[in-house]
Write a structure and sequence with these properties.
- The chain is mostly helical.
- 41% of the residues lie in helices and 10% in strands.
- The strands form three sheets. Strands 1-2 form a two-stranded antiparallel ribbon. Strands 3-4 form a two-stranded antiparallel sheet. Strands 5-6 form a two-stranded antiparallel sheet.
- 29% of the residues are buried.
- The C terminus is likely disordered.
């Protein structure tokens, strides 16, 4: 399966269907040089959505009838992405208790399996699949391992595979070292000016 958004940042996909959620989060423009926002316009968004749903369908075995996106669908996907980032701690702008309500069909198969499948048109099947995968990940306690890189200039979504779930950088060598270097320079500059700096390098006024 190919997850086109995350591959731009050299990110390994999250396990199973959680990779779809990760890929939506990674449609943002980030990195150096900065990659394009894949939800910036209809053409880019439709290409990404088609590839993402193909990859999800291949992994889940659930076929969703392909439908092209409209301009309003792209805006809705950007809103969903923002809502998810808010839930993950990147923002506290929204105070709504329920951010999204979508629909799925429940099907009983001949072999006894009960399958939830996305319903709707435009942006809705993809968004429903995203929420279904988050719910599934929460059931097995893997949702907390999908994180946003602590480097605010990056904020790429990564799956934390550390034993104690303590990872904070999508790549320690790229983002961890860069942030630590900026913090070190800030501390040295603050000391030179007779001020203190906190652990992240932010200057603390006396």
């Amino acid at each position: 399966m190919t997850w086109t958004a995350g591959e731009r940042y050299g990110i390994g996909p999250a396990p199973g269907g959680l990779a779809l959620v990760q890929d939506l989060l990674n449609t943002v423009g980030a990195g150096r040089p900065r990659e394009r926002d894949l939800l910036a316009d209809l053409v880019l968004a439709d290409e990404w959505a088609t590839a993402a749903m193909d990859a999800w369908s291949a992994g889940s075995g659930i076929t969703v009838e392909p439908r092209g996106l409209a301009e309003d669908d792209v805006a809705r996907l950007r809103d969903l992405r923002a809502d998810l980032r808010s839930c993950m701690g990147a923002s506290t702008a929204s105070s709504r208790e329920v951010l999204r309500t979508l629909t799925a069909s429940v099907a009983l198969h001949r072999d006894g399996r009960v399958v939830l499948a996305p319903r709707g048109e435009g942006w809705r099947p993809l968004a429903t699949a995203v929420l279904l995968e988050i719910a599934a990940a929460q059931q097995v306690d893997s949702w907390r391992r999908l994180k946003l890189c602590r480097n605010t200039r990056c904020a790429v979504a990564f799956f934390d595979r550390s034993k104690n779930c303590s990872g904070v950088w999508h790549d320690v060598r790229v983002c961890g070292n860069a942030v630590n270097l900026r913090a070190s320079r800030a501390r040295r500059g603050a000391l030179a000016n007779g001020r203190a700096a906190d652990g992240d390098g932010a200057v603390v006024e006396p």
